[in-house]
Amino acid sequence: MTASSIDHLGLDLPRFEPGWVWLCGAGPGDPGLLTLHAVNGLRQADVLVYDALVGPEILGLARPDALLEYAGKRGGKPSPRQRDISLRIVELAKAGKRVLRLKGGDPFVFGRGGEEALSLVEAGVPFRVLPGISAGIGGLAYAGIPCTHRETNSVVTFLTGHDATGATPDGIDWAAVARGSPVIVMYMALKHLDEIRRRLLAGGRAAAEPMAIVSHASLPEQQVVETTLGTCVEDAAAGGATAPAMIVLGEVVRLRSALDWLGAIRARAGERAGA
């Protein structure tokens, strides 16, 4: 592998220079959803500073001699402070390392990539942003749920289920979102789903509106709980939904009955195994 190509693709991809930081999105989990830029970075980086949602198969694409540093944040568990993570990647870059800051999904979609990039700017560290497939799009696609469909919605809202303190965000105008967005895609919302349900119902959403909770999206253990806004908390518990999870509310959820391509593949594999 040379710095300017991946295998035999013949692509002129950027060389990872010492002292640089690449803020990279690793996608929702399936290694096949990595971008070529991400793989290029993995094969050149001296140090990977990676998040909790980056799996071992993705880390296995790094150089054998690369240093792996865990910087994962998981709700309710001891986690490094964001300031400490930012200072660490600055420190590594200042030491002349090629630092790949590897995040699940996309670094600029609820990934704190903007905060880290501003820290790099302040420290005078050069950086590159490598977008990734956000779980709010790619993860739902693996569940057979499109974010938009011409017959259901031309608007979609992406929101986070908790703020910097870990509480349900008060900065969101929940009534306006309830009224104005036919489809609502929620990141990190499972913990506060009861409160979110209350606010959306108060804003005028129907209790019978379809909802889906997609746990471990795009991974072999992916699980989808189809429910409604009115019964989502109870159904999530009964169905064993666990974080990390994406939650989508809206009529697009009904399309899953026809578009669950991954379920169809698994069913065919099961039929072949039983033959």
Automatic annotation (TrEMBL):
It comes from the Bacteria. Keywords: Cobalamin biosynthesis, Methyltransferase, Porphyrin biosynthesis, S-adenosyl-L-methionine, Transferase. Residues 21-231 form the Tetrapyrrole methylase domain. GO terms for biological process: cobalamin biosynthetic process; methylation; siroheme biosynthetic process. Its EC number is 2.1.1.107. GO terms for molecular function: uroporphyrin-III C-methyltransferase activity. The keyword Methyltransferase applies. Pathway: Porphyrin-containing compound metabolism; siroheme biosynthesis; precorrin-2 from uroporphyrinogen III: step 1/1; Cofactor biosynthesis; adenosylcobalamin biosynthesis; precorrin-2 from uroporphyrinogen III: step 1/1. InterPro entries: 4pyrrol_Mease, 4pyrrol_Methylase_sf, 4pyrrole_Mease_sub1, 4pyrrole_Mease_sub2, CobA/CysG_C, Siro_Cobalamin_biosynth, Uropor_MeTrfase_CS. Belongs to the precorrin methyltransferase family. This is uroporphyrinogen-III C-methyltransferase. It comes from Tistlia consotensis USBA 355.
